[in-house]
Specification:
Blueprint lengths: L1 E10 L2 E7 L4 E5 L6 H13 L18 E10 L2 E10 L5 E4 L2 E2 L12 E4 L5 H4 L2 H15 L1 H21 L4 H45 L5 E5 L7 H14 L1 H7 L11 E5 L2 E2 H4 L2 H23 L4 E5 L7 H11 L4 E5 L4 H4 L4 E7 L2 E8 L1
Helix pairs in contact: 3-4, 4-5, 5-6, 5-9
């Protein structure tokens, strides 16, 4: 799977520009605040419908413009895919796949898969469980339509259940909760089962990737905090029982305390919790290992690597880990942003270098 071209119009600091990418390593080089990260963001946005940086979509539109237009031409084992996205300051974004408008953003996921890493991804390791759930949700939603459907249904039911728990009439709560709990448990079980399978695969792959990046200095281990195992039916039954046990607590607090929206995964280096005891360098290496493992899961499930986007990562790594990261990236299409493409880091690996200045491509060169 690879992206051949990327077109940007009135996106962030770009008036209009087109990028052409090679199948291997592509480097967007240049000083800070020139537009490298904006191009990387556009790639992930076209693949997932999600911006890893913007909190509001209007932030993506160039100052003075009413709308932004971005598109890419990609190629997978199933043929060519053209994705077009129009982002307005006032309306919802519009997306077309091969010229056909989509009704839901979920239709976009899985067409062109991508794994994204930038310095903010350290939150995956050092911040709240919500960040680790988001990592699983974005990854699994690209891999599995059934996961995405279950997640959307679960979130709607969760919101309705929480609204019910705020009801002042206790009789209404007790009469209605069992109705919601049957559907809640059903979709919770689907999510938990797929997350368990994901983590079972992610663990060994992350351990191997971490050992490669760190030179085997430490051992990474991952454990699930869901507490539910077994078949889908067994998990659904257990969730339903836990909901019943938590009735009084949930009513008192006004929200649901049981379910996959409370899940977490724990990360350990040599038995110590990385979030608590890991240095920033250790946390960064763990986060990178998780992302590299994610690319391998994509390949195992679809037969193709995703597009790997590494934004401003090299400057935070020592030379040894920079080189090892590039070695792992050589087997898939990779888009890297950095201030300087040091040939000593890239070694003999062929890469295409594109210099970005003030939202414009100024120089293109290849190293073979």
């Amino acid at each position: 799977m690879l992206i051949k071209t990327l077109r940007l119009k009135n996106f962030r600091n770009y008036a209009e520009e087109e990028f052409s990418f090679d199948a291997a390593v592509n480097v967007l080089a240049g000083a800070n605040a020139q537009g490298k990260t904006n191009a990387a963001e556009a790639v992930f946005l076209l693949c997932t419908g999600y911006s890893p940086r913007a909190t509001k979509e209007y932030q993506l539109v160039k100052k003075g413009a009413e709308k932004a237009e971005i598109s890419c031409r990609a190629e997978s084992r199933y043929g060519e895919i053209v994705i077009e996205m129009e982002i307005s300051r006032t309306d919802k974004k519009n997306v077309k796949i091969n010229g056909t408008p989509i009704l839901r953003i979920g239709e976009l996921l899985g067409n062109v898969n991508s794994v994204f890493f930038n310095p903010n991804e350290l939150k995956l390791v050092k911040e709240s469980p919500e960040d680790r759930r988001r990592f699983m949700n974005i990854s699994l939603s690209q891999m599995s339509k059934s996961y995405l459907y279950a997640l959307n249904r679960y979130n709607k039911i969760l919101q309705q259940r929480n609204n019910l728990l705020k009801e002042k009439d206790r009789a209404v709560i007790w009469d209605t909760l069992p109705i919601w709990d049957a559907e809640f448990s059903r979709y919770a079980a689907k999510i938990i089962l797929l997350r368990n399978e994901f983590l079972k695969t992610l663990g060994p792959l992350s351990e191997e990737a971490h050992a490669f990046l760190s030179g085997g200095k430490e051992t990474l281990k991952i454990s699930s905090e869901s507490g539910y195992y077994g078949t889908e039916e067994e998990i659904a039954f257990a969730v339903k029982e836990d909901l019943r046990t938590a009735y009084e607590k949930d009513v008192r607090l006004g929200f649901t305390t049981v379910g996959p929206h409370r899940d977490d995964m724990k990360l350990f280096l040599d038995g110590e919790d990385v979030r608590v005891y890991g240095s920033q360098g250790q946390q960064r290496t763990v986060a990178l290992a998780l992302k590299l493992a994610e690319t391998e899961i994509f390949r195992g499930r679809s037969g193709e690597y995703p597009v790997l986007v590494l934004d401003d990562v090299l400057s935070e790594l020592d030379k040894v880990r920079q080189r090892r990261l590039i070695e792992r990236a050589e087997g898939m299409q990779t888009i890297i942003t950095c201030t300087n493409a040091d040939k000593r880091v890239f070694g003999a690996a062929p890469f295409k270098k594109m210099t970005v200045l003030a939202g414009k491509l100024k120089k293109i060169s290849s190293s073979v």
